[in-house]
Write a structure and sequence with these properties.
This protein is of the alpha+beta class. Helix content is about 35%, strand content about 25%. The chain is built from eight helices and nine strands. It has helices spanning about 110-120, 130-145, 160-165, 175-180, 185-195, 200-215, 225-230, 235-245; strands spanning about 15-25, 30, 40-45, 50-55, 60-65, 65-70, 75-80, 85-95, 105-110. It has a five-stranded antiparallel sheet, covered by helices on one side. A four-stranded antiparallel sheet has the order 2-7-4-5, with no helix packed on it. The protein is globular and about 60 Å long.
């Protein structure tokens, strides 16, 4: 079976999604004195910008191929540094009670993987909310992994999490993962829930649902085909989980 998974720990819900592509010339600037009302993921497709942040008095120059995350309500001033500068912006909200603390300040990152994701975002897919949501989850997962430091208390369960992310379509019992981590089932269950905020089944189902969304957005799979490939062999159960994990 081809592994076309989405690797991500989905501990938050994304909603109120929007997309805009902007082109400006040198010296154009715009102050967001109170920040934006939604989180922003901004990728510079051509040219460069300077971001000046009021909160910490820091300044960042962002050039072609760079992605910057700016939290909502985070004040800043954006200034275009070159003529014909083009940026792609994804805006969205997260459930406030579950928004990861790592996303409470600006993050800047540059990689070919992030650039490739943004290149795939263009008309007519910019009108597809499910498609945009899958891309936001993917981008945040990449950025979050760069920021994550796992507390020593939870390092024992990392092999299980990695196994779940790689082979989410397998219906293994909790005992399989507990043995992998050389732990009792009760201790493993407790640490897993503490670290992920989910039971093992809930965690696996969220990965599966994210992958189903990605497969559907590719327009190469029907809902039933995607559900079956990720491990849902009962469609009634699948729709129940789908409703619980709405974007």
């Amino acid at each position: 079976m081809e592994d076309i998974r989405y690797d991500g720990e989905l501990t938050y819900t994304i909603n109120h999604i929007g997309f805009v592509k902007v082109q400006r010339n040198r010296d154009f600037s715009f102050p967001y004195k109170n920040g934006k009302d939604r989180h922003s993921l901004i990728m510079v497709e051509e040219g460069s910008l300077r971001y000046q942040f009021t909160a910490n008095k820091k300044e960042l120059v962002v050039d072609c191929g760079t992605v910057i995350f700016i939290p909502k309500e985070y004040p800043y001033l954006a200034t275009y540094l070159q003529d014909g500068t083009i940026i792609k912006i994804l805006v969205f909200d997260m459930d406030s009670d579950e928004s990861p603390r790592r996303f409470d300040k600006p993050i800047i990152q540059k990689s070919s993987e992030l650039s490739a994701i943004y290149k795939s975002i263009d008309y007519p897919k910019t009108n597809n909310t499910v498609f945009l949501a899958s891309k936001i989850y993917e981008i945040l997962d990449m950025m979050e992994s760069e920021q994550t430091v796992i507390p020593s208390k939870y390092k024992k369960i990392v092999p299980a999490i990695e196994e779940l992310n790689r082979h989410y379509y397998e219906n293994r019992k909790l005992s399989y993962y507990a043995e992998m981590c050389y732990m009792s089932e009760s201790h493993f269950r407790k640490l897993f829930k503490e670290y992920t905020g989910r039971t093992l089944i809930e965690y696996r189902n969220q990965i599966r649902i994210a992958q189903v969304r990605k497969m559907i957005s590719s327009e190469e799979y029907s809902v039933q085909e995607a559900a079956y490939q990720v491990g849902f062999h009962n469609m009634s159960f699948f729709y129940e989980i789908w409703r619980k994990n709405k974007i």
